[in-house]
Amino acid sequence: MPKSTQTSGSVPPMERLDLNRPVVDQIYTALKSAILGRELFPGQAVSETEIGHSFNSSRTPVREALSRLRDDGLIVTLPSRGTYVSKLSEKHIRSAQFIREALEIAAVSRLCQMGLTAEAEQEIEHALNGQRAAMKAGDRKAFRVHDDQFHAALAAATGLERLETLLIREKAGLDRLRALAITDEAHMGRLLCEHEAVYDAVKAADEARAVDELRKHLRRVLGILSQVFENHQDYFE
Fold this sequence. Notes:
InterPro entries: GntR_C (IPR011711), TF_FadR/GntR_C (IPR008920), Tscrpt_reg_HTH_GntR (IPR000524), WH-like_DNA-bd_sf (IPR036388), WH_DNA-bd_sf (IPR036390). This is GntR family transcriptional regulator. By secondary structure, the protein is mainly alpha-helical. The chain has two domains: 23-85, Winged helix-like DNA-binding domain superfamily/Winged helix DNA-binding domain (Arc Repressor Mutant, subunit A, Orthogonal Bundle), CATH 1.10.10; 90-235, Four Helix Bundle (Hemerythrin (Met), subunit A) (Up-down Bundle), CATH 1.20.120.530. It contains ten helices and three strands, in the order αβααββααααααα. It has a three-stranded antiparallel β-sheet. A hairpin with a 3-residue loop joins strand 2 (75-78) and strand 3 (82-85). Helix 4 packs across helix 6 (140-157), helix 5 runs antiparallel to helix 6 and helix 8 (185-203) packs antiparallel against helix 9. The radius of gyration is 18 Å and the shape is globular.
């Protein structure tokens, strides 16, 4: 952990757990959202005990949720020092971007060749409609959620279950950078237009256009990397 690591701060108040739903999933989702929303900032120490109190939960589901976040690269545990929200790594971001691009381009190529089912179109359009509503409301958090749903729907439409799992894991390395980049309605509008262009090309079975539109869209995140680093140097290793 770099010398500039911050250890102050506390876990933000969390919503009451719904005992009718998997507790681990709820804790994991809430903590991930807090990290992406910078309620838990890079370098901040996190405590199993404090998280358990925040959720009124036992340690076992907290540990499982932290394990999943560790697998995502969002937290790191250092022997004899504790657990921290991980800092951003330019090397890791570029690696995750390379893998994500390869996987998603393969996915849209497959979809252009096999076509979309009515169910797949419904899921994709639901995500796009969610983005439109979030943009209109100025809700960046909801916009990110529906952004993720759009990409997940494309992956799910291929029928390759492992592909969706791999994409979710690789995207985790980019999620915080994306969250820092979505700053205003104009930016959300550009992302939405890019999603619509990809979807239109896939529906038209125009593989070359779909691949080109998707590649430009996915590389946008690297285009803002230097700007994010300049504005938030303390968030990086």
